[in-house]
Amino acid sequence: MSRMGTVICAAVAIAAGAYWLSLPSSTGSLPASPLIGSADAQQAEVDTSTIVEMVQGAEDAPVEVIEYASYTCPHCARFHEEGYKQLKADFIDTGKVRFIYREVYFDRYGLWASMVARCAGPEKFFGITDLMFKSQSEWARAGGPAEIADELRKIGRVAGIDNDKLDACLGDATMAQTLVAWYQEHATRDEINSTPSFMINGKKVENQPYADFKALIEAELAN
Questions:
Q1: Where are the beta strands (DSSP E) in 19-156?
Q2: How many C-beta atoms surround the C-beta of residue 147 within 10 A?
Q3: What is the pLDDT of residues 36-86, one digit of tens each?
Q4: How far apart are CA 218 and CA 94, in angstroms?
């Protein structure tokens, strides 16, 4: 999903307002909003070291690929249905690429999806991410906040997470605030202003056909 604003603008949009507690939905209370006071977001020092990087592939792979993606981005969903599967088969599973997935939060629903995807830890993260993208058109258009939260809980339950655990994850305001700070920290440093975007061995790469993406990786492997 192309984002014409800067990362700072996106972060400020997320930061406007305050965390709010919501009305109950059919399966429990809504998750906290990612909206945090803009002054607090800019001034408070949030310890982002608690956020776990979601990684696939060999630790000593010669090429590192970082993907920045939003769960509500249609272009990201398309990449995961096509390019990512080829990338995994060609390079990740063969030990040539260490792949890191970092979430981008342009809206609260993307943050909620991230909190569900991370709820069961790294072991289930990529499987849940696959479910999120496959059903994106359903849950992201389910209606208002209550309906979208319920659809995200359904995905979590399909992955084997029980309702109590899901409600605890979605209601963790500290985690939500930390994830937003973590996103802003990395995306600002890497100048991410659209999704999906990639870093290949530290060089920023925009979304492109897989054949071109593959050629860039092969060039890195040849160095």
A1: 24-25, 28-29, 54-56, 63-69, 97-103
A2: 14
A3: 333 344 446 889 999 999 999 999 999 999 999 999 999 999 999 999 999
A4: 13
CA distance 155 to 167: 13
Angle at 76 between CA 61 and CA 219, to 5 degrees: 35
135's tokens: 């059903």
Its pTM surpasses 0.85? no
**Torsional sign, CA 46, 117, 13, 28:** negative
Q: Are 220 and 200 in contact (CB under 8 A)?
A: yes
Strand ranges inside the chain, DSSP E: 24-25, 28-29, 54-56, 63-69, 97-103, 197-200, 203-206
What would the two tokens of residue 149 be? 């939260």
E-only strand ranges, 42-95 = 54-56, 63-69
Angle value at C-alpha 106, between 100 and 110, nearest 5 degrees: 70
Tokens 């999704």 sit on residue: 195
